[in-house]
Amino acid sequence: MTDQASSGNPLIRWKAIEALKHGLRASGILSRRDTMSVAAEAQRLERQLKDFVQGSRSLFWTRQGMYIGAGLLTAFYYDPFLAIFCVALCQLTEFLDNLVSAHVISWHGGSYRQARKFQSHLTMTSTLSAIAVALFAILVSHLEGPGSHFTPLFFLFAAGLFAAMNNHQLPKVLLARLVVYGFVFLYIPVRDLLVVRPPLDSELWLQFATVLFVLSFIVYCSMIFLKLYREGLDNLDEIRLERDRARAAYEVKSQFVSVVSHELRTPLHSILGSLSMLSNGTFDNAPDRAAKVMTIAYKNSKRLSNLINDLLDLQKIESGQMEYDFSPTRLDAVLVEAVESLGGFAAQSGIKLKVRELGDDLVALIDQDRIQQVLTNLLSNAVKFSKPDGKVEVSMARGAGKAHIRVRDYGIGIPDGFREKVFEKFAQIDSSDDRSYEGSGLGLSIAEQIVAAHGGTLDYESELGKGTTFTLSLPLC
Prior knowledge:
Structural class: alpha+beta
C-alpha cells in the first residue's frame, strides 16, 4: 500500500486535524501544546490501524488454511458436525473483521474520534474471533475427556503465536486475544486436574506445567514483536519530524530570501537613482533639489543599515553569541530616552507620542542599550501602524515585583489568527511585495529574545481596527 493510499488526501487530512485543534483550543479544553499532541497521536493511531488492516488482509488465506485444516482434522478424528459448526463460527467472525477492515481501508484519515471508533470495532471483532477459536479448542477437549490434549492445545498455541506475530500493531487487539487464549490455555488442564485430582507425578500436572511454559513463551513473543513495532513507529516519527524540520528550514530560507530581497531592492533602487542623478549633474543648478535627493539617499542607507544590524543581531542570538552588559538602571530614564529618540519620526508621520505615567523610581538589572533597542522597536511599530493624526501612549507601572511598560496605539490592530506568528522571524501582517508598511519582520522576534534573556516577557493585546497594546515586563531589582 502506498503512503498516499494509507494516509489519504494530505489536504483533507490537514484540514481535519486543524479543525480538531481549533475546536479544542476554542473550547478551552486543551492548550496549543496539548492539541499538537492530540494531532500527533491521531496520526500515529491512524498509521497503526492501516498497518493492522493491511497485515490482516495479507494473511487472509493463511487464516483460511488454518481454519480448514483444523476443521478437517476435527471432522475426521472427532465429530464432523462440531467441525462444521466451529469453522462456520470462525468464518462469521472473519466476515465481521473484514467488514470493519474494508471501512478502514477506504477511510482517508484525519479524524481522531473516527480512529478510536475503528480501533474499538477491530478490538470487538478480534475478540469474537478469539472466542470462536477458543470455543473450538474447548469443545474438542471436552470430546477427548481428561488426558492429553495435544490437538486443542496446539490449536491454541498456533492461534496465540499467530496473534503475537501479526496483531502487535494494535496493543488492545493483541491483549484481547491473549486474554481469551490464555484463559482457555489454563481452563483445559485445570479442568482435568479438578475432575481427576491426580497425584503430583501424573502427566496431567506435567501438561499443566507445560501449558504455563508455552503461555509465558507466547506472552514473551508478543512483547518482543510489540516492542519492535513501536521502535519502528518511533523511528518513522523521527524521520517525519526531520522532514518537517527540513521543510520549515526551507520555508524560513524562502522567507529570508523574499523579505531581504524586497527590503534591499527598494532602498538600493532609490539610492542608485539618487546617486545617478547627482553624478550626471542633473541638479548642479538646483542645490535644493539635490539636498532633497541626498536626504532620500541617506534615509534609504539608514534603512539598509538597520536591516543589516537586525540580521547580525539575529545571527548572534541564534548562535548564542549575543553579549549583554547588565547593570541596575532606572527604567523611566530609558523609556523617556526611547520616546525622545522617536519624536522626530512620530512627528514626521503625524503621530503624537504621549507619556501617560511612569510610576515611581523603578530599577531593573538590564542591558540599557538592548532594552532601548526593544523599546525603540515597539514605539516605531506603534507609530508605523497608527492611523494618520493618531497617537501612541506610553506608560509604566509596578506589579508583582515587575515593571510593566505598555506601548499602546490606536491603529490597524493585529488579526486574531496572527498571534502565533507575531514573534516569528520574517512575520508580516501584510507579506505581499506591494505592502504598505516597511519592515523585515525581524524586530519583534529579536525583541522577544532580548527580553527573555533579561528574565522578562513580551506580550500584546489587540483588537482589529482599534489598536494594539504591547506590554514589556521586566523583573525589578
